[in-house]
Design a protein that fits this description.
mainly alpha
Length: 105
Amino acid sequence: MITVRRRTAPSTALPAVAGEAIRNPELRDVFRRAITAAVPAAARTIVERAISRGELPPSSDIELLAALPLALLQHLRTVSDRRPDTKIADRIVAQFYTPTPSAER
């Protein structure tokens, strides 16, 4: 299970900064480098390790799987106006990052 923290001042400010980054090219560059690079980088490490352990097939698209959590969370927040919670995080992990039993590969 993944722990999702309660709303804090920084976590409520992040959507505002992301919104402003759309209009401000300098802020957008900083935001992309500092914020949006962290989640895919962590996911990339997880995917690479899962592949090396044989939990995901070697043919897995690392770049796509690494981008997926952030893309889904951003979509839920901006398009569906839903705040991600532990159920959403658990669903993402179960659907895309849970090892496939050897018999099903």
